[in-house]
């Protein structure tokens, strides 16, 4: 039974930049460079028939390629931070793609995603870390800004249950239409 999610792959040079930002928070579990991605929709564990339905519906997505840029850093968890992430510069095309994927997955019977879509790339997962270290990290990298890159496809990934995710396997790649 595969554990699936839909996401975007990052260009190698941007993944390298993010890798260079690892460190500085004792107890953080830093994400490996080859596992950086931007999740559009977590699906979870499904059987083979549902996985086939997911592939079929994602194959019908009709969206154009679009530019994207990572911008800034943040954390989830407030005073008890549990993740550090790189943010994404707002873009209507990204939100439209995510909404289309969400609608299609609901049409085939998957439960709606309950969390608001907050585009980000997870850099580290944490438990019981120093809030001041996290704040210092965020202060050090708050001006981070990647180069702009073009999103030309999205991916159906599988993963095996593990602490911190990964390794991830690109099961299927769905091309976006060239800019018209």
Secondary-structure map with pairings?
Blueprint: E1 3-9, H1 12-20, E2 29-30, E3 37-45, H2 48-59, E4 66-68, E5 70-76, E6 83-88, H3 92-107, E7 120-125, H4 131-141, E8 149-151, E9 153-159, E10 168-175
Antiparallel strand pairs: 1-3, 1-9, 2-7, 4-8, 5-6, 6-7, 9-10
The first-level CATH class name: Alpha Beta
User: Could you say what the CATH architecture is?
Assistant: Alpha-Beta Complex
Please bin the fraction of helical residues: 25-40%
Q: What is the radius of gyration computed over CA atoms, rounded to a whole number of angstroms? A: 17 Å
Could you spell the SSE succession in H and E letters? EHEEHEEEHEHEEE
Spatial separation of the terminal alpha carbons: 39 Å
Largest sheet, in brief, is: 4 strands, antiparallel
Characterize the structure shown:
It is globular, with a radius of gyration of 17 Å. 27% of the residues lie in helices and 32% in strands. The chain has helices spanning 12-20, 48-59, 92-107, 131-141; strands at 3-9, 29-30, 37-45, 66-68, 70-76, 83-88, 120-125, 149-151, 153-159, 168-175. The protein has a four-stranded antiparallel beta sheet, with helices on one face. It has one domain (3-175): Cyclic phosphodiesterase (Cyclic Phosphodiesterase, Chain: A, Alpha-Beta Complex), CATH 3.90.1140.10. The longest helix has 16 residues, at 92-107. The protein has 180 residues and is α+β, with helices and mostly antiparallel strands. The mean pLDDT is 94.
